[in-house]
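I am writing to request your help with a piece of structural work I have in hand. Thank you for your consideration; the sequence and its tokens are set out here:
=====
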Amino acid sequence: MSRRSGILEFAVLGLLRESPMHGYELRKRLNTSLGVFRAFSYGTLYPCLKTLVASGWLIEESGSTTEDALAAPLAGRRAKIVYRLTAEGKEHFEELLAQTGPDAYEDEHFAARFAFFGQTSRDVRMRVLEGRRSRLEERLEKMRASLARTRERLDDYTLELQRHGMESVEREVRWLNELIESERAGRDVKDSASEGTSRGVPEGSSPGAFEGSAQQNSTSGETGGLPRHRDQSRPDPSDDTTT
């Protein structure tokens, strides 16, 4: 399994843990809630869903609402498929949430992990945040060393670009420091924000801008940030239909 497909499966399981969804609704949530999935096709999502079904982590159900039942025969359209998380799928997602290995700190995976922090235990959140901070501090050290070696050979614009990159990483490190301090103090992200502390990923940092409230029905009752992006794709007319 590739790293990106693993992130997609994680995100799909996390969203379906909230409630069952049609494929189009799920794709829209992925586009608007998780910046790492700003642009991906049905050709990417549906193989993922089929894999999760085959693994026993999801089940497919025909649309069961009265509207769906009436609309299908009247319009001559096939009933939509609803994807629902199984008990095994929920258990598997909880296992994924508990993982704190190096993949959790990488740019794309960290954004997805942070989006589901509302469903993650505090000790795991701390390990992921501290791991991310350590990774960025290492990156920052290398960037500074590289800039010191090449400064004299760079033109003004390239030099400014290098500085901009460093400042972006520095801002994210400061943001992580604030989050870690809040976690240690036992404060919710939203509580800290109400005190005047910004909880968005700093502009220019790799995960994207986290805004708003995530996982309102989370098990821990705490909020996580979500990158917000517009869904610019049109629905597929044949989306979510049974054969």
